[in-house]
Structures are given as structure tokens and as C-alpha cells.
Design a protein that fits this description.
9 strands, alpha/beta, 504 residues, 4-stranded parallel beta sheet
């Protein structure tokens, strides 16, 4: 009897043990299956997110508007999250707290560098008036017909955040204010050119307080060069040299051009203002044939905002008011003993007359290059037909060049000159065109030999190399005095101080 019970207990124990082992095996199989499922899901998620991040990165390389049609979850949340995970931490200055007197909207006019200077002025004005500035609208109706928005050229987020300790800047009006503007409840005007900051305090601020929104529809040269409060002048510099960064796409392509040039030796940037629009506007037609003179004259009459119509080209040239021709430029560079092995980077649009007008320059300086010859067409694909974005590339290359030579004192020439001063008085040859054309004519007419001509050219430019100087102030004639952005003397370090210490 006891033996039977022991046998039954043994069988039951073995049965229990077997069932337990089966359960463990089943449990183990289920656990492994679940683990495989989770691994597959995890791997798939990682691959999916990697693809999204890679596509987003490629979108940035392809151009700012390629991914515009993606759903908002991709363009906003995912991109922002990727930027937060990869972008280095950036110091943000504390916000300045002030009572907002209203909103200032501005529509810039002119080319890239005219608008750049105007933006600096508008920030300073907004700060002084304690108003909120709306990110400026860029000119889309001028000769260049560039439809680029602010954020297509400049890093808008950096612009806003880097200045938040000075002024509040918004990308667009708040909804409640926008509705008022849509109903026509704003005041639009063009401020007086070369005005003191006090003009904005006494004339513009009351309008902002009354209407809440004031729109300045012209911005070129609307703030005086001189006799402004020091904090205003320094803020203009801060915007120009720090807050107005180009977009990452423009910055990276600009660096690539500079790298290519550096690999091939020293380079000079020649801002050769011999484009069709400049010649038509200035009326300078020397060395042009009859058909070209007629074409340029028709163009000048076609644009009503180019007010001067009847122009004596020869007289204007003798007064130094014409851009140098490519032929005159070649003679000048040779006379200044610029090494013929230098690369000469042309920072300009299409040269009027093409290769026919460039042959003398290229004969003396065979290493003439442009961004179009240094890069593949695909590199410039998204910048084509956007003159301001192309000009931004030339601006970056101009800052980095060993020598910068403008052949006309337009906005780019002046702003680049000032920026190069800020970067340590980098060599910028400021040509005296009035004396130059006189010397060139004497040389061509046999009144000077080459040695005499070269010595004279070097002599008149010995003190015109971008070295430290004081701005020339001409009371009641601001157009004729030195431009603030060509020589921001209030923001330049004393010569006795190290440059890097000043920049900190």
C-alpha cells in the first residue's frame, strides 16, 4: 500500500516537473518572440528617423524651398527636433524689457548692400524709439527683379535672437495687429534722407503712438552719417558685423569658393562695375560702339526713377564719376605693381561687351576667375536668377581676399571697405578715378612714359589702401561726405590695442 502511494507521488512529481519544464520552454519561446518583435520595431524606428534626418539635411543642401511642400509634422517638429539634437548650444543675450510704443514695418529698396546698410539703420531707429521691429521686407521691384525674402539671404533666427537684448524683432505682426493693418489702419511714409535720430524721436514716434503701426516704404540713407549718439553708431556696427549673417547655404558656398582660391595662391577681388545697368544709369559710354550707346541710352530712359537722362559721358569721366573700363583697370593694376600671377576674382554681374571688353585685362592677368568658373553649375543652381544671393557670395569672397579693388564707389564697394577695416584694416585699394583717367590719357597720348605713369599712380594711392583714417564730414552736404558704413570709426579698435582683444 505504501509502495503504491510512493509510486503515485513519484508519478505526480514527474508529471508536475514535466509540465513546469514545458511551461518554461513555452515562456522562453514567447519571450524570445517578443524580444525579436521589439528589436525589429526598434530597428525600423531608428532607420525611419535616420532617413527623415538625412532627407531633411539633403533638403537644406538642395535649397531652402525644396521641402516646402512636406507636411507640417516634417517641416516643423522633426526639423526642429533634429536641430535641437545636433546644433551646438548658442548663448542668447537676455531679453531687454521695455514698454512697446508700437510696431515698425520697413520695405527696403535697392541692391543687397544698400538694403544691408538700411537694415542696420532701421534696427538702431527701432531701438531708440522703443518699438517692435518686424523683419524687413526686401526690394522685389527694382532693376534686378529678385524675389528673395529676408530669410533666403540672411539667418533670420540669428538676426532676431542676437539682438534681443536691444530690440524686440518679430517675423510678422501679431494676429490682432495684422487684422488692423489689413483694414488699412497704419501709416505709410518715406522718411527724410540723412535725418538725425532726433527726427525719428520727434516726427516718427508720435505717428507710431497714434497709429500703432508705421510703415517706412523707403530706407536708403535715412539716418545721418555723423553726430549721432555713440550707442546708436555702435548698434549700427553690431547689426552689420554680427547680427546680419547670411544663411548657412550661402555661408558654406562662400567658404568653398575661398578654399578653392586659397589652394591656388593669393587672390585679388576686383569689383568691376562695368555692367549694363551701371553704364546706363551713369551714362558712361566711353569705348562703347554706336549700337551699345543707343542701347544704354534707351535703357536709361526706360527707368523713370533714374532721373538724370541727358549725360555728357566724356565730361563725367574727367570728373571721376564713371566706373573704370576693363582696359583702364588693367593699366591701373599693372601700374600699381600687382603681381600678374595673382588670381583676379571678378565680383560683379555680366560685364557689358563680354570677352571683347575683357581681353586686355585677361592678357595682363590670365588668372581671371568668377564663381561661375570655380564652381559646377549645380552648385549655383538655386542661386541663379537671385541677384542678391549671388551678390552675397561675392561679398563673402571680397571680405577674405588678399586685396580688394572696387572700380566704382557704389554701395558694395563702400560696405565691403568698411567691413574690411573692421576685420583689421585689410588692404583695400580706393582708386582716385579723377586723377587716374587724367594720367591714363597722358600715358596713351605719349605725354608720360611707363615709369612716370606707374610712379604717379602709386604716388596718388599711397594713402588710399584702407588704412585708419577719419571720416570726412561736410555740413549740409551728406551725399558728398564719407559714408558711415565705409569707415565705422566709432567701432574700430585703437591702433595700440590688439585686434582680437577688441573683437571679444
Amino acid at each position: 500500500m505504501c509502495r503504491i502511494e510512493r509510486t503515485q507521488k513519484t508519478e505526480m512529481a514527474l508529471k508536475s516537473f514535466g509540465e513546469s519544464k514545458i511551461e518554461k520552454v513555452k515562456s522562453s519561446v514567447v519571450s524570445r518572440s517578443r524580444m525579436k518583435l521589439w528589436i525589429i520595431r526598434g530597428t525600423t524606428s531608428i532607420l525611419l528617423w535616420t532617413c527623415i534626418v538625412q532627407l531633411t539635411a539633403l533638403g537644406d543642401m538642395w535649397g531652402p524651398k525644396v521641402l516646402k511642400g512636406w507636411p507640417s509634422c516634417f517641416t516643423q517638429d522633426i526639423v526642429l527636433q533634429a536641430e535641437m539634437n545636433t546644433a551646438p548650444a548658442r548663448f542668447l543675450p537676455p531679453k531687454r524689457v521695455y514698454k512697446n510704443n508700437g510696431y515698425l514695418m520697413v520695405s527696403c529698396n535697392g541692391g543687397l548692400n544698400q538694403m544691408r546698410a538700411a537694415i542696420c539703420d532701421m534696427v538702431a531707429i527701432a531701438r531708440y524709439l522703443n518699438v517692435t521691429l518686424i523683419v524687413p521686407e526686401l526690394d522685389k521691384t527694382s532693376f534686378w527683379s529678385d524675389n528673395s525674402e529676408f530669410e533666403d539671404i540672411f539667418d533670420a533666427d540669428h538676426f532676431i535672437t542676437s539682438l534681443r537684448d536691444e530690440v524686440r524683432i518679430l517675423k510678422q505682426l501679431p494676429d490682432r495687429v495684422k487684422k488692423r493693418v489689413e483694414l488699412g489702419m497704419l501709416y505709410s511714409m518715406a522718411p527724410i534722407s540723412w535725418s538725425d535720430i532726433s527726427y525719428y524721436q520727434h516726427q516718427i514716434l508720435p505717428l507710431i503712438r497714434k497709429y500703432k503701426v508705421v510703415h517706412l516704404n523707403r530706407t536708403d540713407a535715412r539716418l545721418a552719417n555723423n553726430n549721432q549718439p555713440l550707442e546708436i553708431q555702435k548698434l549700427r556696427c553690431r547689426v552689420n558685423f554680427s547680427a546680419l549673417k547670411f544663411t548657412p547655404q550661402i555661408e558654406e558656398l562662400g567658404k568653398r569658393i575661398v578654399k578653392i582660391l586659397r589652394q591656388n595662391g593669393p587672390f585679388l577681388v576686383l569689383h568691376l562695375r562695368y555692367e549694363m545697368d551701371m553704364l546706363a544709369f551713369s551714362g558712361c559710354t566711353q569705348s562703347c560702339n554706336d549700337a551699345e550707346v543707343e542701347e544704354l541710352t534707351k535703357m536709361r530712359y526706360a527707368y523713370p526713377w533714374w532721373k538724370e537722362k541727358i549725360i555728357n559721358s566724356d565730361l563725367k569721366r574727367k570728373e571721376g564719376l564713371c566706373p573704370l573700363t576693363p582696359e583702364e583697370t588693367a593699366l591701373t593694376l599693372r601700374a600699381l605693381d600687382i603681381d600678374q600671377n595673382f588670381q583676379v576674382y571678378i565680383a560683379a554681374g555680366e560685364i557689358y561687351g563680354g570677352q571683347r571688353r575683357m581681353k586686355d585685362l585677361m592678357k595682363v592677368y590670365p588668372k581671371v576667375v568668377r564663381k561661375e568658373t570655380l564652381l559646377e553649375p549645380s552648385d549655383l543652381r538655386f542661386f541663379q536668377n537671385h541677384s542678391s544671393q549671388m551678390a552675397a557670395l561675392d561679398y563673402l569672397v571680397s571680405l577674405e581676399s588678399d586685396i580688394f579693388v572696387p572700380t566704382y564707389d557704389g554701395n558694395m564697394a563702400k560696405v565691403v571697405e568698411g567691413h574690411r577695416r573692421y576685420l583689421g584694416f585689410k588692404k583695400t585699394i580706393l582708386l582716385d578715378r579723377r586723377l587716374l583717367v587724367e594720367l591714363i590719357d597722358k600715358y596713351k597720348n605719349g605725354l608720360l612714359n611707363w615709369e612716370e605713369f606707374s610712379d604717379s599712380v602709386k604716388g596718388i594711392h599711397a594713402d588710399r589702401m584702407g588704412s585708419p583714417s577719419q571720416r570726412v564730414v561736410i555740413a549740409d552736404r551728406p551725399k558728398e561726405e564719407d559714408y558711415f558704413y565705409a569707415n565705422t570709426q566709432e567701432c574700430l579698435q585703437p591702433l595700440s590695442e590688439p585686434f582680437d582683444q577688441f573683437l571679444r
